[in-house]
Amino acid sequence: MRKCPKCLVEVKTNRKTCPLCGQMLEGEGSNTPTFPPYQPQSKQINLFLRITFFITVVTGIASIIVNALTYQGVLWAGYIMLGLVYMWIIIKSTIIADRNVAKKLFVQMIALSILVIAVEKLSGSSGWALDYVVPLICEFSIIAIIILIVSKKMRFNDYLLYLLTTILISFVPIILYWTNIVEVLWPSVSSAGIGLVTILGMIIFADTATKDELKKRFHF
Do 70 and 123 belong to one domain? Predict the structure, then answer.
């Protein structure tokens, strides 16, 4: 550790002069870095994706086991598996992308919802698409947005866009229930609950600048 006789500060460095005043430093130098090594963001994203993949596998296996143990003629675990696959399609096609990610998530959610409803109508069955699959699609879209927020640095405008998109996505199933379009309540409540928790988490854990901007935008 070297010391500057003029500034009276200790400098952990191997240089001979003070970085503040240019005075010759006294004492022995040190090559120990002052700051931790730089961690590329890609490593953090890869770690998060590996954790998410592990959770996905556990969720899929658990749903299959529970469905098998409580089987009553409905293979609902297949819906969950399709939702997990869809979530990873979202991750690969949108989260890794750099532009208009929230817009892509919302458009894909709408497109897939329309697709499963069309499949239901063509197959001659009724109820399962809006009652179960559409809420699951909304939930997995919300999870994808959470992954996006955690894994990428964003400007406030992007942050607000994801927040509003989350609100829209989470309340779609419960609105369908209130308008008597769907008959099963718990998937809609689950989707809205995940959305509300996400919104609260985004507001609570946001930095001060983001909270101040939210107050300005929504006048509270």
Answer: yes
Alpha carbon distances (Å) from 3 to 17, 32, 35, 137: 10, 15, 19, 62
67 and 2 assigned to the same domain: no
Contact 2, 27 (CB under 8 A): yes
- Residue type, position 61, single letter: I
Whole-number percent of the chain with pLDDT over 90: 3
Tell me which residue range forms the domain holding 177: 54-218
Instruction: Calculate the average pLDDT of the chain.
Output: 75
Using the 8-state DSSP alphabet, how is residue 24 labeled?
B
Position 39 in a domain: no
- Higher-confidence residue of 212 and 56: namely 56
Domain assignment of residue 43, yes or no = no
Nearest of 6, 28, 8 to residue 16 by alpha carbon: 28
How many domains does the chain fold into?
A: 2
Q: What is the pLDDT of residue 35?
A: 46
Residue 193: CB partners within 8 Å, gap ≥ 6?
none
